[in-house]
Structures are given as C-alpha cells and as structure tokens.
Amino acid sequence: YSDIGLRPMIDIDIIVRERDVEKSEKLLVNELGYYSLRTKRSLEDSCHIPLSKKGFSLEIHWDVDYSFKGPNRIVIPEIWKRKYINRLNDVAIESMSPEDTFFSLALHQRRLGKPFILKYLCDIDLLVRKFQGSFDWDFIIEKAREFRIAAPCFSMLKLAKKIFQSPIPENKLEQVRVGTIKKYFIGYVWKKAIFITKYNKRDSENLKYNYLLTHLLMYDKISPPFKYILCLSEERFKKFYGTFQDSKRLHLLYIFRIFYMSFKFGIRFFNRMIIYFKDLLR
Length: 282
Known about the structure:
Oligomer: single chain
Mean pLDDT: 81
Number of strands: 6
Largest sheet: 4 strands, mixed
Helix content: 55-70%
C-alpha cells in the first residue's frame, strides 16, 4: 500500500521459527513490556500467542493455518527458505515471499469462515500487481495441489479477478484444480452472500448456513472442516449459532454441536435443493 492509512489492522502478526517461540515471548514480555495472553487453545490449535501492551495487540505465530496434521499443512521450513527481504528506511525486514503471502491470506480467509472479506482481496490484488512480472504461478499451482489448498486459492483468485480485474492469467487460474460441483456451490455462496442484487431479509439470516457451507467448500477434503467443528470454541459457537438466555441450553448444544450444526445445515441444504429443482422445472 502506498499509505499506511489505507490498510486498517487489528493487530500485528510476527511469524517465528517454532524453536524460537518461547524466546520471542520472553523478549516481548521481559524487555518490551508486553503482557502474554497465551491459552492452551491458542498454543495447540491456532498456533499463536497473543500479547498486549497499552491496548496494542501483537501475535507471535509459528504456522499459517490451524494445527491440522497431514498433507494439507503448509511446510513452514520452506517458508523460511523462500523469505523475501524488504527494505524500510534502510532497514532489512524479512518477509514471506509473495507466493507464501498469498497462501497466508487465502488460509486466513478460510480460517475465519466468511465467504467475503474485502481487505484480503485488496491485499491479493495489490500483491499480484506489485509482483506481476515475477509472481510464480506454476509454484502456486504446484503447492496448492501438494498441500490440498486448491479450493481457498481458487476462490480468492477468482474473486480478486472478478472484483478488481486483477492481472491473473485465466489459464493459470483454471489449473488450480477444483471440482465442477464445488465450483458450482462456491458460485452459489457468492451469489447469496456477496453479489446480492436485491436486499432480502431472508438473505441476512443466512449467516449461519453460509458460515458452515463456506468451511465445507474451502477445504479440498471433507475431514478438516469436521475437525474444525470438533475443535470449535464455545465462544465462536455462540457467535454464529445464537445467544440463548438460558446458558445451560447453549452449553448443551455446544457439547452436541457436531449433531446440532450438521442437522441445521442439512435442513437448510435440503430446503435449498427443493427450491433449486422447483426453479429448474418452471
């Protein structure tokens, strides 16, 4: 961005090698006056330690996605090998390569479970434009397949191209392989949650449905989103599935969330399919 005021941020994320996490936390706490807000969940699930100082938030990360094991996890040591040296006021700052920065943005959008976050699309558009002559599309295609993150990569690139006319080669975009059925449902979510031509009160009530559907669509395999649901915090569950005056009822639904969320999603999905086929028969 040409001006720091153009890109609002809630906090600053710093990625460190996993072996340096404890050392980095101690440095920030003991020498720079930060207060550590680490929790068991932030360590085991989100792979970060939040810190605060006079209302300013900073997070130490050692991974760019949830701590799912298996081939869909980005290989962190490779990120360090591909690091990009950026100079700011004659100070060398180590940053992720343009390609790894794109992966980080796509995975962050997926992690938040929202079909549309404009600032990340702005980031991707400017990233692709800045490195237009050197952006390694073949690397993106290869790693999207290897790490099984083709769905979020395709979705973010397609949206950036649609909204900003980002200089993304169409032939490269099509090589980020996503199944035909998944492409259809990704387009369906866009239509209902993003490109709404006429405001409908019912559309505003689809947040819970689109939240879960987006998670299902943004993974190349079916198992990771269900792992996410199993690891879903009670706070996030409460945010997306309603606040009940009876906290005991909420807690009970949270305990049985895999059944409750699947049931609610199934009912909504079934109703949508009925409407879809009715429209086809008209």
